[in-house]
Structure formats: structure tokens, C-alpha cells
Write a structure and sequence with these properties.
Number of strands: 9
Number of domains: 3
Helix content: 40-55%
CATH architecture of the largest domain: Orthogonal Bundle
Strand content: 15-25%
Radius of gyration: 19 Å
Distance between the termini: 27 Å
Strand order of the largest sheet: 1-5-4-3-2
CATH topology of the largest domain: Endonuclease III, domain 1
Order of helices and strands: EHEEEEEEHHHHHEEHHHHHHHHH
Length: 312
């Protein structure tokens, strides 16, 4: 990796917390002379090293990603223009002082703007299993069906793999793919079908990235596809389509809504109707336009501080 760029941000950024908080499973950690974070973005190998709270180093053989200067792309990737204080406003601080005190140390967690197709397949693959296993399964998916790329880092050869293209996954036998879905054949079949729909243009993720589309319409459109329910649809919207208003709800989110915000709805089973009720409730104490951004900070804090979970 020959080209190095440094990014300095006026907003603190915690690279490790951002990449290993459950919003992406496509990054690896390599420790040589320092801790490096590696992935392939748009076919370009990228290495990131945290230098300080507000400064990161990027290494790549390319100066561009997706026709954008790599430094500008990474700034957008880590949503460095978003001010967390817009999410947790004065009313939140006043009404929830203990919660606010607890989550403040997580404000340097940044929501990522990822590829929507990769996000869709990742969360379809990840449903209902722990994060360590999710990362293992998606690593198998990339190794088995992606393109191998070798790079040199501090004199050491490291092998990375691209995420498999829609066309490649569309051609895979679901039975064979099930080794990457925790042996869930139905899930593998749904992933192959989704890849076929992206390859054929039946799922137009570029069109769905239009911010003018109402969130409910976007969610319902994604849910037309087998294997995608409200939660996965909201994950695709939040982490893959830049819809920071999307608020994914899983067991941990339901738990913190009940414990921290006294939601009676959170005590009920997570039916589609209750899911939408919880979504509405969350927007009463979070900035609706950034509800998902704030929700993920709360999610990560809950898992680490309350549940004492350390696997990401």
C-alpha cells in the first residue's frame, strides 16, 4: 500500500467502535507495529489506522474510490459531517441525565455509509445469530465467492477478499451457500433470490437511495423480498442507504427501550404492529431525522455497559 492520506476531523471518531459495533461485518483487524483495520471498498483495498481522537491515516494503492478522492470518500463513509449533539438535544439531556452521562463516551462512534447491496446480503445472512458467528459466516461468503486480493502491509503479505457480486451469488446453489448462513437453507435461498433480483434490476437499490422516498414506503418496498422483514429493511436503510432516520429494532433495542425509557410496548412480543409502535415511541425522545443514528449509539452502549457483551 503506497499512498497514505491523513484525515483530521473536528468531530472525534473512534474507528474501532464504529467498525465493530454491529453495523458492518466486512472489516478485519491486523496488529503488526500498530492496529490496522482492513477491508475492500468498491473493489479498492483500504487500510485505516487511528492516530488520535480526531485523526486517522488511510493507506491504499488508489487515490480514488468510486470516482471520489479517497479522503473525501472516507469522510463521507464515516459520516463526519453529522453532529451527535443534534441527536441528543437539550430535552433528552434534561429528561435522561443518567442515560446521557452513560452514552457520552460513545459519541465518537460514527454511523457508516456502506454499499447497500453488501449491507442487504450481510444482514440477511446475519439474522438471528451472534456477532462473532456473523463475522465468521460473512468471511466465508467473501472467501468462497469473492475475488482474492493480496496486499503488503509493513512487509507482510495479507490476503483480502472482495464481497461477491450479485451475479456471482445469483449463480450459487442455495444448498452450497447454506454453509455461509449457519446451515439455514431457507435463508440461503432468499439470499440467492435477492442477489438475482439485484442482478436483474428488479431490486433497484440506487433508486431506493432517493432521500425523498418516505421511510415507510422504503421499508415496505424492501419487505416485499423474501427474508427481509422490518428490522433487516431498517438496517439496509440506515447502514446502506444513508437513511439515518431508520430505526432498526432487535432484542437489545427493545430491552433498552423498556429499561431506559419505560416503554410498555417493549414488554410485549416484537410483532410487526408493536415494532411500528416502538419506532414511533423512539422518535419522541430522539431527533426523528437522526433516530437510527442515535439508536445505534444507544444499542452499542447497552450491549457494552449493561449486558457486558464484548463480541462484535
Amino acid at each position: 500500500m503506497k499512498i497514505k492520506n491523513n484525515i483530521t476531523s473536528i468531530i472525534k471518531i473512534d474507528v474501532k467502535q464504529s467498525l465493530f459495533s454491529g453495523q458492518t461485518f466486512l472489516w478485519d483487524i491486523v496488529t503488526i507495529d500498530a492496529e490496522y483495520y482492513l477491508s475492500v471498498i468498491k473493489g479498492i483495498p483500504v487500510i485505516i489506522r487511528q492516530i488520535s481522537d480526531d485523526r486517522i491515516e488511510i493507506q491504499s494503492d488508489s487515490i480514488m474510490i468510486d470516482s471520489v478522492l479517497i479522503s473525501d470518500f472516507i469522510k463521507s463513509y464515516f459520516s463526519l459531517e453529522i453532529d451527535v449533539n443534534l441527536i441528543f438535544q437539550d430535552d433528552f439531556k434534561r429528561l435522561n441525565p443518567d442515560i446521557y452521562s452513560l452514552i457520552r463516551s460513545y459519541f465518537s462512534l460514527r454511523i457508516l455509509r456502506q454499499d447497500p447491496y453488501e449491507t442487504m446480503i450481510s444482514f440477511m445472512c446475519a439474522q438471528g445469530i451472534g456477532m462473532h458467528l456473523i463475522r465468521k459466516q460473512i468471511g466465508m461468503l467473501k472467501k468462497n465467492y469473492g475475488k482474492k486480493i493480496s496486499i503488503i502491509l509493513s512487509g507482510k503479505e495479507i490476503v483480502l477478499h472482495t464481497f461477491p457480486t450479485p451475479e456471482r451469488l445469483a449463480a450459487v446453489d442455495p444448498l452450497v451457500l447454506s454453509t455461509c448462513t449457519n446451515n439455514n437453507r431457507i435463508r440461503a435461498k432468499n439470499i440467492v433470490l435477492a442477489a438475482q433480483c439485484v442482478a436483474d434490476g428488479k431490486i433497484d437499490l440506487h433508486a431506493l437511495a432517493d432521500p425523498a422516498i418516505p421511510l415507510a414506503e422504503l421499508r415496505n418496498t424492501l419487505c416485499l423480498n423474501p427474508g427481509i422483514g422490518f428490522k433487516i429493511a431498517d438496517c439496509i436503510a440506515l447502514f446502506g442507504l444513508g437513511r439515518f432516520d431508520a430505526f432498526p429494532i432487535d432484542t437489545h433495542v427493545r430491552q433498552y427501550l423498556g429499561k431506559w425509557f419505560n416503554s410498555r410496548t417493549a414488554l410485549r412480543s416484537l410483532t410487526p404492529a408493536n415494532y411500528l409502535m416502538l419506532d414511533t415511541e423512539a422518535r419522541t425522545f430522539l431527533n426523528p431525522e437522526l433516530a437510527g443514528y442515535g439508536g445505534h449509539i444507544l444499542f452499542h452502549c447497552w450491549r457494552k455497559e449493561v449486558k457486558k457483551l464484548h463480541s462484535f
